[in-house]
Write a structure and sequence with these properties.
Layout lengths: L1 H23 L10 E5 L5 H10 L6 H11 L8 E5 L5 H9 L6 E5 L5 H12 L3 H8 L2 H6 L4 H4 L6 E5 L5 H15 L2 H10 L3 H14 L6 H13 L12 H10 L38 H8 L8 E4 L5 E4 L2 H30 L2
Antiparallel strand pairs: 1-2, 3-4, 5-6
């Protein structure tokens, strides 16, 4: 009898030891960074194990599988994104996933984006339905629910890095991004806008044009100053139309079906659109893109000068002018330079194609 009891005790101890080994065995390999694992909706336990193995997050699939079967946690896989730290035990891994203790993903919305690009970013980094994002950005009811309209909504999706959850849907993601707009407009910034005689939305609209124009960050305040001079009539020339090429590009892409930006032709400047600032007075109906913080601040703190014109200088920057005659001379030189570049390219292509 004593022998039987001893055997049972030993078996119990062995079983407890095996259970402890399964549960508390460090099973996530050493690494410099946590392992990132995404678990789509409807993933089975075997599918989870496949995902963990594919990113190298487990040493022993067998021990993890055994613990899942013993505890019943193999039936409790939760959708989400998880970071698994090196050295985690089987217990810690499965406990985190069965409880759905997700880790956020860092999403960066770049400045100078169109709605389609924002939708792609959310799809690629968050898995959000890009069609749903694009649809919401053009939904008047959705825009109204956030205190704005469709013309201004995307421009208020200010460029920034956000922490979001992989299971966030399109509406949740967009509301999270838009929350920052009101926070951005501090009392100091609102006071600067008021001093210019502009509303925050008007500042963002002007900044969206500067965003497309300024390839060099150090030029943003000067370019903003040119447009403020034209818009508010700060020079002896008085008020002028903005005549901003980016607004023509926007109209051609948004309303004219152009797939991408291209060199503008003379006829393009007559394109009939409320966004074409060669045809309308003042600002367009809304932003043409989402500007960076620094670009909005460049408008609020625009450079005081008497420039009214600028033209590309071939280096990514611009050459500024005060008078039409000065500007036209520089524009002709720029056009001649572009034509020469095209001529040289065609000549090189012809030479390369020759037998």
């Amino acid at each position: 009898m004593k022998t039987v009891l001893l055997i049972l005790v030993l078996l119990g101890l062995v079983g407890a030891g095996v259970a402890a080994w399964l549960a508390f065995l460090p099973n996530t390999p050493a690494a410099e960074e946590p392992y990132s694992v995404r678990v789509p909706e409807g993933t089975s336990f075997e599918g989870l194990l496949d995902s963990l193995e594919s990113v190298g997050a487990v040493r022993s699939r067998t021990s993890l599988s055994a613990l899942g079967n013993v505890t019943g946690w193999d039936e409790q896989v939760k959708t989400g994104h998880y970071y698994l730290e090196p050295g985690m035990t089987n217990w810690a891994v499965l406990d985190k996933i069965r409880k759905g203790l997700q880790d956020p993903i860092r999403i960066t919305i770049p400045p100078g984006s169109r709605p389609e690009r924002t939708a792609r970013v959310l799809r690629n980094q968050l898995g959000t339905d890009s069609a749903a994002v694009a649809r919401l950005l053009r939904d008047p009811a959705f825009a109204d629910s956030m205190g704005t309209n469709v013309a201004h909504l995307h421009g208020q999706m200010l460029a920034e890095t956000f922490d979001m959850y992989w299971t966030d849907d399109a509406e949740t993601a967009l509301r999270r991004i838009h929350e920052r707009y009101d926070r951005f407009w501090t009392p100091e910034r609102r006071a600067k806008a008021e001093a210019l005689g502009l509303t925050p939305d008007e500042v963002v609209t002007l900044a969206s044009i500067v965003e497309w124009e300024a390839r060099k960050p150090e030029e943003r305040r000067r370019i903003a100053g040119v447009y403020v001079n034209r818009l508010l009539g700060r020079t002896s020339a008085g008020r002028m139309r903005l005549q901003a090429d980016p607004t023509v590009q926007f109209a051609l892409m948004e309303e004219g079906g152009e797939p991408r930006m291209r060199r503008l032709l003379f006829r393009d400047y007559a394109y009939p659109s409320d966004y074409n600032t060669y045809r309308i007075d003042g600002l367009p109906p809304g932003p043409i893109t989402n500007p960076a913080d620094g670009t909005i601040d460049a408008v609020l703190d625009n450079e005081a000068h008497d420039y009214l014109f600028f033209v590309a200088d071939g280096s990514g920057g611009h050459d500024f002018s005060r008078t039409v005659s000065e500007h036209n001379a520089k524009a002709r030189r720029w056009s001649q330079w572009l034509s020469e570049q095209v001529r040289q390219k065609r000549a090189a292509e012809a030479a390369g194609a020759a037998p």
